[in-house]
Amino acid sequence: MKLEGIRVLDLSLFLPGPLLTQMMADHGAEVIKLEPINGGEPNRVIGAERDGTTVFFANTHRNKQSVQLNLKTEEGVEAALRLAESCDVMIEAFRPGVVDRLGVGYAAVAARHPGIVYASLSAFGQDGPYAKKPAHDMATEAYAGILSVNLGADGQPAIPGIANADMLSSMMGLSAVLMALYRRRDTNEGDYIDLSMMDSLIAAMPNNVGPVFAEKRAPNPKDERSWGGNAMYNIYGTKDGKHIVLGGAEIHFAKAILDKMGRPDLLEACQPPPGPNQDPARNFLKETFLAETQAYWVDWFDGVDAAFAPVNDLRQAADDPQFRHREMIIEDDRGWEHIGIPMKFKNEPGKVVFDLPELGQHTETNLRNIGYTDADLAAMKEKGVF
Hints:
Blueprint: E1 7-10, H1 16-26, E2 30-35, E3 49-50, E4 53-54, H2 55-58, E5 64-68, H3 74-85, E6 89-92, H4 98-102, H5 106-112, E7 117-122, H6 137-143, H7 146-149, H8 164-187, E8 191-196, H9 197-203, H10 210-214, E9 233-237, E10 243-247, H11 251-261, H12 279-290, H13 294-300, E11 308-310, H14 314-318, H15 321-325, E12 329-331, E13 337-339, H16 363-369, H17 374-382
Parallel strand pairs: 1-2, 1-6, 2-5, 6-7, 7-8
Antiparallel strand pairs: 3-4, 9-10, 10-11, 12-13
Helix pairs in contact: 1-8, 8-9
């Protein structure tokens, strides 16, 4: 597989870092999860469980090894540094400054292993006026302006359906790690990656900052191109209390729909720019879709060359034939469902290994592999190192 032979030490918790390293594990990397001594990875106990295992943990920690070390002991720090020396990549997601205080920051690791690719994922980055602020996903979305345009039916900011900052920083972090590994092939030099969740959000908005940059104003979501200003790019309710979407504002899509509805006269009202000038088409579509059920409209749009979709709930999405065909929802021998691998390679594809580590399961094995003796391990255990 693509990353076979790459060894990763992961100190991160919750979502961004663990998902990044799981993607690496799915493609052949050996991932060692270094879990804190006081309970381990928090997502082991967050959310719904199956036979005592949370779905969250199962979808972020498959095919990893678990090592527990007390980094508040000298022996624990030394063991972590020796593990890092044996790895190609190290990931951490503590608040800036924490790993340095613990003795496992980039400087300490690179002094012993200059070829390490070391990535720090944090809310606001390692520097700047917000660097030391505590924050999870939603706070960074608030600062970045994302929540101001993520409005509910009442026109008020709503909690987004996915953890945008977590997911974006995870995937940007993966890209950065792979770039650094690629460069290391030629230079034999490692690198340090400072990855900010808030930075990732603004980097993901090149299609939405037009009025912000060109007109120096905050956008009015209901009038903007991507957030409701287009009649043909919008969410509409149906008779049975469900919803459908029109997801393409191109004029040829509008023509296909309005011709079939017998209202080609409204095509002019679908022309850019987005905003109030499209109200005639938007109001007509709103009334029309409310007259029939979601199932009716699914049938009606069959064969129509337009970007249409029913709004599925998450259970419907998990059962969707496209997801199943693409193996994005897969099942193990127990019948447990899992999220699959999104990167589809023709050669050396990734592989889902469903094994999940027990807390600290691989501590002694990994410490022996880097030179610790049975006597060393007994002494460390006695001192509370693991």
